[in-house]
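Figure S7 source data.
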Amino acid sequence: MKAHGILLAGGGGTRLWPLSRGENPKQFMPLGEGPSLLADAFRRALSRVHPSRMVAVTSQGLGWKVRSHLLETPGGELCPVIEEPCRRNTLPAVLAGVLALRDKGARDGDVVFVLPCDHVVGDQLILADAMDQAAEIALAGYLVTFGVEPGHPETGYGYIKTGEPLRGLSGHAVERFEEKPPFERAKAFLEEGGYLWNSGMFCFSLGTFMEQLELVAPSLWGLAGAGLAGLLNAYKDVEPLSFDKGLLEGSHRVAVVPLKTPWSDVGSWDSVYQVTPKDQEGNASRGSARFEGCRGCLAVSSRRRLVLMGLEDVMVVDGEDAVLVIRRGLSQRVGQVAEEEKGER
Ligand code: GDD
Ligand code: MG
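Tokens for the predicted guanosine-5'-diphosphate-alpha-D-mannose complex:
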């Protein structure tokens, strides 16, 4: 099997303010095991894809940064980086990646993995197994998602309603896909059962992707005829579409493989706290910190030492030009505050 990979590295990420910014989005932050989430994603991909068969797609102006993070790992120099002229969400970015892979010799029957660069995965070996299963299902003509058992009614994820098991393959058909439902609906999904979180990783054969794109998003598909250069030229007029809403929700060829390992998109300071190792009092730190009489706290700093005393369930994040001090459990609201803080000093 010839497998290819598309690293999606162009998102914004404002909920991790004040560290995540326009020029320093989440994928460049060291929230996982390696120097950045992007480097971690590249290393995970290497277990199944040779670096010469990968491309990274990012936003204009971020190409040099993506390149430098890829170079942290041997083989990174073999992965070209495409800069989109503007941000048009993940479906056009995946199409750009697919067209670049085609230029590098990828054929309709080849398998492609789409790998976001903004999450942490607990066990790499379990992921590699799931990638093998997904590749088999992809070759049977499906757009394959990787489904995680939901732990709480998260409103920031897509939900996959599993259907019938696929005959002879270790996955399920997808009955329905619903992107980012409101809280009450997410709660009902968990009560009803049979739903999985969409982890944001995808796998398909190049041919199936193009065929489903033609059916579900014909105007975007129409731009593929002019190749990668043509697509990028027309990019400003492309409708922003996510892979999930723009393709999966409208396709009848979606399947899911279970991803049975801890997974998080570390999209908020509360989830950073959850994935960070803790001392006996449940305090966690990234960077140099000291806790005196604290319980359940998080300290994050890349420059200065932080000292926290007598605090409970408080998170302190030391940024370049702003410091966030917040009670645990409130971090979903940081994105809104970050928007309002733009331009303040
Ligand atoms: N190149 C490029 N261009 N990459 C992008 C763009 C873009 O315009 N927009 C987002 N990305 C990248 C992000 O950097 C990230 O690695 C990945 O694509 C996913 O985009 P997000 O914007 O982070 O998506 P999301 O988190 O809101 O939702 C997706 O991921 C969830 C899991 O983390 C969906 O797939 C959900 O269904 C899923 O649950
Ligand atoms: Mg995300």
